[in-house]
């Protein structure tokens, strides 16, 4: 059998582990070939494709990024100036005689995969993204690594916060979901965690900073997701990228919060935007193993001729779900999330009067 493979959207740690797993699982039986498209769907549109050998898939488990390249601006249904070039991509797959295409990606990639499936090309999705915001799976690979990096950054920021008695604001990625800020904020014992799912009140955040000063702690650590918004305010858009399935690029809310707090807080305030650092470098053991399990399961689906599915993790077990259940959806932090409740229980503020700690104390 012949299987196409691409990695689409923003890169994240674990992509190479997934490429390795899928390729090795298919090639080990000696009756399959894998064709890798360069730079996601761009390779499928432009016919930029190469065989992926067992050797290509060896020695890449621990490497960040993707050996196939990726793109988040190559939508075959709206390419460059918006042209629908999906026929070109389908022709390319037909010429190669592909039985299925495995698309490793986030929500944008899954939406495109679903459209190709509807056009008759068997597509199998593998969920990746540091944002952890794909529907129907409780984990995407890349997230655990991003949380580790953000947690380490927040831990290190503590030193300067304590030494200089400052308010330190650390902005994480995550788009419209607060998973990274929530998990890294909780793991680092941040005093305030601000996520898109809970609009924050600047005055409530300032009250936490003041209370900590009065209590003698004299520093405050705030983890804020790039998609967080003040009550009645808007998301802060840093950029728009033409040709991207979601052209909006968020960023800059930490600077806005600094300005909101300054009139109400005596301490100095500093901001750190973690940015793409959260997507870089070697994956954690968890992400390597998750990507390996996802990749191997995707190979099984391809062999079984089960297109139109995305591999997933549900209730701690590996499964697969229809692509149509994932396309166009975002999984955000639910209001009753267990980690939100646990963080609140130890005095962490989520930036509202209701979530303010009852006693000025660090949760760290
Ligand atoms: O979806 C992953 C992600 O890193 C988001 O957290 C972030 O908002 C976005 O991609 C950044 O995109 P780009 O790499 O195009 O700047």
Give the uncertain stretches in residue-range form: 360-364
Strand content: 15-25%
Q: What oligomeric state best describes the polypeptide chains here?
A: single chain
> Could you say which structural class the secondary elements and strand pairing correspond to?
alpha/beta
How many domains make up the coordinates? 2
With strands numbered from the N-terminus, the spatial order across the biggest sheet is 3-2-1-4-5-12-13
Bound molecules: 6-O-phosphono-beta-D-fructofuranose
Q: What is the average per-residue confidence, as pLDDT, rounded to a whole number?
A: 96
By DSSP, the count of extended strands is 13
Q: According to CATH, what is the topology of the largest domain?
A: Rossmann fold
State the CATH class of the largest domain: Alpha Beta
First-to-last CA distance: 54 Å
Radius of gyration: 22 Å
Q: Write down the overall geometry.
A: elongated
Number of helices: 10
CATH architecture term of the largest domain: 3-Layer(aba) Sandwich
Topology pattern, helix = H, strand = E: EHEHEHEHEHEHEHEEEHEHEEH
């Amino acid at each position: 059998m012949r299987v196409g493979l691409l990695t689409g959207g923003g890169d994240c740690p674990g992509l190479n582990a997934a490429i390795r797993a899928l390729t090795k699982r298919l090639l080990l039986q000696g009756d399959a070939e894998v064709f890798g498209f360069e730079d996601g769907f761009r390779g499928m549109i432009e016919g930029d494709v190469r065989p992926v050998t067992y050797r290509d898939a060896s020695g890449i488990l621990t490497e960040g990024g993707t050996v196939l390249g990726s793109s988040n601006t190559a939508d075959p249904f709206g390419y460059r100036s918006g042209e629908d070039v999906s026929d070109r991509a389908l022709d390319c797959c037909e010429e190669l005689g592909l039985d299925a295409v495995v698309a490793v990606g986030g929500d944008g990639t899954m939406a495109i995969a679903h459209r190709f499936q509807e056009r008759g090309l068997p597509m199998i999705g593998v969920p990746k993204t540091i944002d952890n915001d794909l529907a129907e799976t409780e984990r995407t690979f890349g997230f655990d690594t991003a949380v580790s990096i953000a947690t380490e950054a927040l831990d290190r920021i503590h030193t300067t916060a304590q030494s200089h008695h400052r308010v330190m604001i650390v902005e994480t990625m995550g788009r419209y979901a607060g998973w990274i800020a929530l998990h890294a904020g909780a793991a680092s014992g941040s005093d305030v965690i601000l996520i898109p799912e809970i609009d924050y009140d600047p005055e409530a955040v300032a009250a936490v900073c003041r209370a900590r000063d009065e209590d003698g702690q004299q520093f405050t650590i705030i983890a804020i997701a790039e998609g967080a918004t003040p009550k009645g305010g808007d998301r802060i858009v840093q950029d728009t990228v033409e040709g991207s399935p979601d052209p909006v690029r968020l960023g800059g809310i930490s600077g806005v919060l600094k300005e909101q707090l300054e009139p109400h807080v005596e301490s100095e305030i500093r901001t750190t935007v973690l940015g793409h650092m959260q997507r870089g470098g070697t994956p954690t053991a968890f992400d390597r193993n998750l990507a390996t399990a996802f990749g191997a399961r995707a190979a099984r689906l391809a062999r079984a001729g089960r297109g139109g599915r995305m591999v997933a993790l549900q209730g701690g077990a590996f499964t697969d779900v229809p692509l149509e259940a994932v396309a166009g959806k975002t999984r955000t932090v639910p209001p009753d999330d267990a980690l939100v409740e646990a963080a609140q229980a130890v005095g962490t503020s989520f930036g509202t009067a209701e979530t303010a700690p009852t006693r000025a104390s660090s949760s760290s």
